[in-house]
Write a structure and sequence with these properties.
four-stranded antiparallel sheet; ATP-binding; binds adenosine-5'-triphosphate; alpha/beta; P-loop_NTPase; globular; 251 residues
């Protein structure tokens, strides 16, 4: 079953056309990798899926769980199970990290008709995850990402993700700023969610992250659309020959 179905999507930012007729289908439980040269529109696609305020969808459709995603507010998309890990996670000074985690999960639970967790239940759940991820609990008392190192920001995103148990995860350059050990930990954390129910769209420039999070399908984006679709062999061609080595006929 398709979890996400994008048909002929067109997106502008500040009146500039960034995406022009993009098609993409992601089945439940599949991992898709999206590659493409700098500035080709990969993050813009992620923003279109999550409902970022800066982008303007001018055509096409996105169906998620068979619902019209483009008609939903960003909060509803999140509550229905879409999670995005940002290329550069924002610092939110003044908002306590533990409060942020608790509120996000309880809002999602409330939206989905589940009982809210009380403080003790929530703390137990969160501390189990920090222990498993090797995160120092001191980060829970700090403001969200405020003064965190690049790697700490990414692992904090992973903590949010594992707590919220999303159905569709979008990882925008999750490997940037991570050292080898942190990348391995993040890869293991993501793999824990890959139980055949969770789908992943991973945006990356490098094969190394795909050694940890194995894609079922690989896409190459250029000129505002997906121009090539195949398996991991595409990544090997890109590593060897760059984007010039890819013929742009979609397959
Ligand atoms: N707020 C904005 N205002 C104007 N142009 C923008 C804005 N955001 C993105 N763009 C432009 O949209 C194009 C696509 O950007 P996007 O971030 O989607 O590319 P990308 O494929 O993710 O690139 P990278 O691999 O370098 O991260 C770029 O030319 C970028 O300058």
């Amino acid at each position: 079953m398709n979890l996400l179905e994008i048909d002929n999507l067109k997106v502008n930012i500040n009146d500039k056309e960034i995406i022009n007729g993009l098609n993409l289908k992601i089945d439940k439980g599949q991992v898709h990798a999206l590659m493409g040269q700098n500035g080709c529109g990969k993050s813009t696609l992620a923003k279109a899926i999550t409902g970022h305020f800066a982008i303007n969808v001018t055509g096409g459709s996105i169906k998620y769980k068979n619902l019209d995603l483009l008609n939903m507010e960003p909060e509803e998309r999140a509550n229905r199970g879409i999670f995005m890990s940002f290329q550069s996670p924002r610092e939110i000074p003044g908002v306590n990290n533990l409060y942020f985690l608790k509120t996000s999960l309880n809002l999602k639970r409330e939206f989905n008709g589940q009982e809210e967790l009380n403080s003790a239940q929530m703390l137990k759940k969160i501390k189990t995850l920090t222990k498993e991820l090797g995160i120092d609990d001191k980060v829970l008392k700090r403001y969200v990402n405020d003064g965190f190192s690049g790697g700490e920001k990414k692992t904090n995103e992973l903590l949010q993700m594992l707590l919220l148990e999303p159905d569709l995860i979008i990882l925008d350059e999750i490997d940037s700023g991570l050292d080898i050990d942190a990348l391995k930990r993040v890869g293991e954390g993501i793999n824990r969610l890959l139980d055949g129910k969770t789908s992943v769209l991973i945006i990356t420039h490098y094969k190394r992250v795909l050694d940890y999070i194995k894609p079922d399908v690989v896409h190459v984006m250029a000129g505002g659309k997906i121009v090539k679709t195949g398996d991991i062999s595409i990544v090997n061609i890109l590593e060897d020959k760059g984007y010039g080595g890819i013929d742009n006929a979609s397959s």
